Amino acid sequence: MHRPTLARSTRRLGVLTATALAVAVATAAPAAAHAEVEAEGARALDQNVELTFSAESESASAGITKLEVILPKGIDPADVTYEEGPKGWKFAATDRGYTVSGPKLAVGQDVEYEVTVRQLPDAKSLVFKTLQSYSDGKVDRWIELDDSGGDGHGHGHPAPRLDLKPAAPGAKLVSPTPTPSPADDPSTAAPSENPGAEKTPAASAKPAADDTDDGLPPAVPVGIGAAVLLLGGLWWWRSRRGGSA
Predict the structure, then answer these.
(1) Which of 2, 142, 147, 237 is the most buried if burial means most Cβ atoms within 10 Å?
(2) How far is residue 97's CA from residue 5's CA, in Å, rounded to a whole number?
(3) Where is this region: Disordered (predicted)?
(4) How far apart are CA 70 and CA 141, in angstroms?
């Protein structure tokens, strides 16, 4: 092949390659954002489970300011403890879940935070519907149960889902709000089976005190009285004999 022909072929191939690349870039869909939850090896009925949540930014002009999570059935807001998250953000329980919010993040910055759940319910999977708010008032609603509500290219807003392994053998559901046992509370101690038994010593003490007179046994006053009568009788008898003499 002559040198000019080779040069023309090379230029033609370069043009075709550039055109194909431009078309691919123009027609390529933007990367789909997601909100997710993870807990490595989580099983149903596990206790003190650390969950890591992440939510990607979809705004090119505003920063994320708040995430509101709607808890699935079996997890109460009081059972969730905030561990860490974006600097300056705080946790607050709501009537249906909780919020994590704070100063707006930089434009395009994603959110990641961690919470600990006291115990996971006995379920195969858990869905944490999430509302993601931006500084301009926009809200991304990560509430769809699958990708069917999107545009057919995986660009929907599926809710974060956590798949659980079966519960460990012997695992049991604990009370969501443990209360102290009556046996541990002195104010609720069970009464004695014989309520009067404890009063018996006090009751018997009073009759014992009545049996004495100034600390003397009952026989002493009786003996003194008998002696007085005897001496009086003796004195009267001697007086009679002296008068008759």
Answers:
(1) 142
(2) 71
(3) 145-217
(4) 11
Is the distance from CB of 40 to CB of 165 less than 8 angstroms? no
- How far the first Cα of the chain sits from its last, in Å, is 191
What are the structure tokens assigned to 126, written together? 């858990």
In 3D space, the residue among 120, 124, 127 whose CA is nearest the CA of residue 166 turns out to be 124
Each residue's pLDDT tens digit, 158-210: 999 999 999 999 999 997 655 445 554 444 444 444 545 444 444 444 444 44
Report residue 162: phi and psi, to 5°: -115, 115
Q: Which residues contact 103 (CB under 8 A, 6 or more apart)?
A: 65, 86, 87, 88, 89
Q: Which residue intervals of 113-191 are DSSP H helices? A: none
In the chain, pLDDT over 90 holds for what percent of residues?
Answer: 53
Going along 31-149, which residue ranges are E strands? 35-38, 47-55, 64-70, 80-84, 90-93, 97-101, 111-119, 125-127, 129-134, 139-142
Helix-, strand-, coil-residue percentages of the chain, each rounded to 5: 30, 25, 40
* Maximum mean pLDDT: which of 28-32, 135-139, 153-157: 135-139
- Amino acid at the residue 152: G
105 or 183, which is more confident? 105
Q: Vertex 28, ends 24 and 29: CA angle to 5°?
A: 175
Cβ(118)–Cβ(176) below 8 Å: yes
Residue (of 172, 171, 174, 146) closest to 160 by Cα position: 146
